[in-house]
Amino acid sequence: MKKKLLIILCTLTFSPIFSQKTIKVTSSRDQKIETYYVLDTNRKMKHGKYLLTWDAKLYKSIIEEGTYDNDNKEGVWKAYYPFEGKYDKNDTRVHYLTTYKDNKKNGLFVEFGYGKDTVEVGEFLANKRSGIWRKYKNGKLVGKYNFDTNDNLADKIDIKKQGSYKLPTLIKDNLNLYLINNFHPINHKKVKRLFGIVDVTMTIEKNGSVENVIVKGAEYPELEKEFISVLKSTYGLWNPALKNAEQVTVDIAIPIKFLIEWKKKGHRVGVQCGTLEIIEY
User: CB 3.0 to 4.6 Å from 198: which of 70, 143, 217, 249, for a disulfide?
Assistant: First the structure.
């Protein structure tokens, strides 16, 4: 039986996230290294950042990372692919992005392919799949299911194949470029970077205006409001959808993958919008 090597670093640290004194712990077992924090008052209780890496001779790539709050998983956790080729510490590849609340899956879940493409998107509620989940292949929507109603929506929403609609588009920029240039989120959580995906639905009127913007899946409410604000700012900037060569009002759905990096002076935003769908009820 392999022995577990446990090293406790006795330096007290102060967690800015949860405002409690913690002790850093490093544990090595089965070619993996755990780095986490425990409460000074209860050294069996994880509290703060958690990191699991490979204990390899050539590299120590990340396996999993997240945050504990009083021994409960909390917030966004990321599980990573092992490298298939040459290791590059600046090219980590997320496999699963899972949101936790009180040690249960609650909120946004995203599965990514090794090529960083989105495979599946949805939300959990108390460890159970909830609401609408979407599946993608090569960037295209291939499946859609409502777990609240047990209803397969794939055949009801992918109406673009019928050829009767021309999708709405921004008059000048594409949506990726518009968001990169006009999205200015505030660093409410005081983190260096934030990575995730949101599901957006909104109405594009036949005059090019925008109504009924709804954003779901952001890590916190303020970020959802900031997404809503920048999407509303596209009011009047759309070429409307066409049906049988006539301008029409449509409801659209689009997933938006984002990466925000905050620096001492300003921030940087990366955006990748998924397939735009017209919703037909």
Answer: 217
